[in-house]
Design a protein that fits this description.
GO molecular function: aminopeptidase activity
CATH superfamily: L-amino peptidase D-ALA esterase/amidase
Number of helices: 7
Family: Belongs to the peptidase S58 family.
Shape: globular
Oligomer: single chain
Helix content: 10-25%
CATH topology: L-amino peptidase D-ALA esterase/amidase
Radius of gyration: 19 Å
Keywords: Aminopeptidase, Hydrolase, Protease
Distance between the termini: 12 Å
Structural class: alpha+beta
Order of helices and strands: EEEHEEHEHEEEEEHHEEHEEH
Pfam family, one: Peptidase_S58
Organism: Caballeronia hypogeia
Amino acid sequence: MRTPHIGLLEAGPLGGITDVAGVTVGHCTLSDGAIQTGVTVIRPHAGDVYRNKAPAAACVINGFGKSIGLVQIEELGVLETPIALTNTFGVGTVANAQIRAAIRANPRIGREEPSVNPLVLECNDGYLNDIQALAIDEAHYASALDACSADFERGAVGAGRGMSCFGLKGGIGSASRIVHVAGQAYTLGALVLANFGRLPQLTIAGDAVGRTLHVKGDATHKPEQGSIIMLIATNAPLDARQLRRVAMRAAAGLARTGSAYGHGSGDIALAFSTAYTAPHDADFIAVPPLLADARLDPLFQAAADSVEQAILDALFSAETVAGRDGHRRISLNEALKSRP
């Protein structure tokens, strides 16, 4: 089975979040026996995000999560650091790494200038990864940050190394869509850290594929306890309120794959715009003309389609991984070989 194209909108040339100009992604992957984890970093632009903040907003679909930084984003509507993804127990360490990096670039932080708001989002990779080993250290964030580029790997890499999705191997997936609004072409891209779902729920482009798959050790009757982080970038000129509306549409793409946002699932979407920045020292912020709310429907569609596509991309890109205590997650491609 080939990865289907979701929806009618055209994809960008890279088919990923980095089709939005200026956005880059980097990974640091740890793969050694029981340690199957990592860090993924998304940079909204190439500059200092503390000094030139990116407009952003988040939407918590189901809040079984341990992220850092969402409260200030809700209040102020901007990013102050790159976005970091990792496992649940690595959040504090990665946040410290972000703070240290910001202080190195801006030694007045926390003294003459305000503190910095680190942003770390997580999923629990404890089935494959020995999460109690606390294997993530600050150098892994620095490595992922240094690796950021427009061309990046998907699947069982970075923060996605130990993740599971629909009882199969999950991980990092990405997609993009081109939209035309008010005579202008805009790009919207998504990146997901997919770690959710039960196998019978898996739906691919409307096909209830999961019901036809039989995976050894699948806990079909256990409640859903996974999570997903959904990041959306666009070069469309939107403010934080509008970006939150776009982020909400990630839930539509997630639902189409079969998720019902279970009690134990941490489902968080965050959207940001690259159309302008908010300078740290400015008295006034130069904002381009914003799209009217009545013109946002194409971006809503693109958000839903690209998130659904990104989840499928994570599944189709992932390889089979063995981890702690003999636990194993087979890839979707391997599982499909035994499909009747």
